[in-house]
Design goal:
The chain is mostly helical. Helices cover 45% and strands 2% of the residues. The chain contains four helices and two strands; from the N terminus they run αααββα. The protein is flat.
Length: 162
């Protein structure tokens, strides 16, 4: 769904010309293509800004769909697991096969570690992990005038389209 109408000339340079844009990533290979597009500067800026807003809307909708699918997946997995547990108990872990052989149920043994109390397990059984930088902590320290060797605050210009 598009919030705004975009000039077709601008839109088509991204959708149609595979020499300009990598269709999979959206990466622009030749910005000169856009630069040479005959369009008033104000019109080009307006169209690009509107296109960005359309893409933001698409991204938001896709994220919602992804989250909804993840929720639906989790619900389906929980239903499946509940039914497996019920069927296992109902069959008392005995093999079963449908008369028409369309489905069969069997069991196999497996082993898994069950952690009863993690706090008493010796440290040698813990996996060591690489240290990870606390960028938020470093930023807070730098903002409070604490020097952090190897780090500095960088001021950026971030585009805002409303």
């Amino acid at each position: 769904m598009n919030l705004f109408e975009i000039d077709a000339r601008l839109n088509n340079c991204f959708v149609i010309d595979e020499n300009v844009v990598d269709i999979e990533t959206g990466e622009i290979f030749d910005k000169d293509y856009l630069d040479q597009l005959e369009m008033m500067k104000e019109e080009k800026i307006e169209n690009i800004a509107k296109w960005i807003k359309n893409l933001d809307s698409d991204i938001e909708q896709l994220k919602k769909q992804k989250d909804a699918f993840a929720t639906r997946q989790k619900v389906a997995e929980n239903k499946r697991d509940s039914l497996k547990n019920y069927l296992s108990s109902y069959l008392e872990y005995q093999k079963w096969e449908a008369k028409d052989k369309s489905v069969s149920v069997s069991f196999r043994k497996s082993e898994a570690v069950k952690i009863v109390d993690e706090s008493v397990i010796p440290r040698k059984w813990f996996i060591k992990q690489e240290p990870k930088l606390d960028k938020a902590g470093i930023k807070a320290a730098l903002k409070s005038n604490t020097k952090v060797r190897g780090a500095e605050l960088e001021t950026k210009q971030n585009i805002q389209i409303k």
